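wait is this the right file?? whatever heres the structure
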């Protein structure tokens, strides 16, 4: 079965971007052309592939099967290209990295500059998302490498490296929620807290801590944004729990402070680097991240 590449590209881009118009903008085509390409593909396969709604396009059951096939084919082609590059000892191309928001600052400041000096012909493509989104991006070959906090094991993925990091209480320096010494677990039920949603590794660890230590935090806000958590604490509206490296710049600036929790192994999680396959340069990038953090 021979599928027309331009039809496949329109189909895949429409589902990735969510709308025909967004796909047209990304591909530099008219929306009507994208629609015709998808219709031609549906006619060729004799089945409906997408459903159009007010919120955009969604795959039908057949469309979801085709999308997985296309992504798998794309991943296999990338594997071949990576292996050919490695065989020819070529240091060029793009490394696609999916990572949690808390890693963006460290990655940009610590890794890009040092890594780019050794691999000047390699470009990074960064995609930020939740822990689950990072894992899925790597598993579906949308990213070469994934970096997230407490990413669950997945048989489809290889763990390249991991390191343990602990959640700590973050509060405003000199604010009404700061005090010397460790914080008791029971205090989480009294103080206003803002946390990451449970789709994030940090949020999942917090839920596990609530179950393990038998407390219910006074969560006044849940969010998918670390920037929102930082703003919450900077305005002295309450406290949050994050790995210390996420707010390292604010701590150095004297804006935020860290408090430990008076409980053994409270909030311990693993920062994991995962991939499906790795070109030598991609592995170097991952280890550069780890070395900067250790």
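ok assuming it is, sequence goes like this
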């Amino acid at each position: 079965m021979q599928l027309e590449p331009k039809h496949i590209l329109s189909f895949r881009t429409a589902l990735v971007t969510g709308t025909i118009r967004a796909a047209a903008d990304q591909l530099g085509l008219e929306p009507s052309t994208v629609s015709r390409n998808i219709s031609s593909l549906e006619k060729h396969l004799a089945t409906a592939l997408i459903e159009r709604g007010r919120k955009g396009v969604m795959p039908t059951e057949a469309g979801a099967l085709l999308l997985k096939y296309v992504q798998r084919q794309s991943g296999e082609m990338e594997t071949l290209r990576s292996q050919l590059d490695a065989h020819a000892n070529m240091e060029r191309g793009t490394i696609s990295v999916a990572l949690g928001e808390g890693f963006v600052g460290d990655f940009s400041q610590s890794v890009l500059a040092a890594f780019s000096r050794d691999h000047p012909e390699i470009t990074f493509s960064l995609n930020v998302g939740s822990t689950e989104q990072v894992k899925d991006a790597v598993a579906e070959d949308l990213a070469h490498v994934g970096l997230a906090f407490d990413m669950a094991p997945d048989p489809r993925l290889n763990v390249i490296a991991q390191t343990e990091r602990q959640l700590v209480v973050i509060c405003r320096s000199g604010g009404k929620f700061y005090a010397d010494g460790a914080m008791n677990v029971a205090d989480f039920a009294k103080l206003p807290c803002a946390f990451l949603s449970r789709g994030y590794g940090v949020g999942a660890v917090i839920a596990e801590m609530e179950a393990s230590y038998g407390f219910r935090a006074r969560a006044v806000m849940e969010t998918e944004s670390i920037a929102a958590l930082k703003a919450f604490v900077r305005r002295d509206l309450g406290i949050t729990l994050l790995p210390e490296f996420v707010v390292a710049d604010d701590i150095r600036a004297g804006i935020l402070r860290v408090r430990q929790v008076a409980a053994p192994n409270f909030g311990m999680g693993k920062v994991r680097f995962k991939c499906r396959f790795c070109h030598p340069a991609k592995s170097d990038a991952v280890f550069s991240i780890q070395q900067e953090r250790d």
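The chain is about 45% helix and 25% strand. so i think its the right one actually
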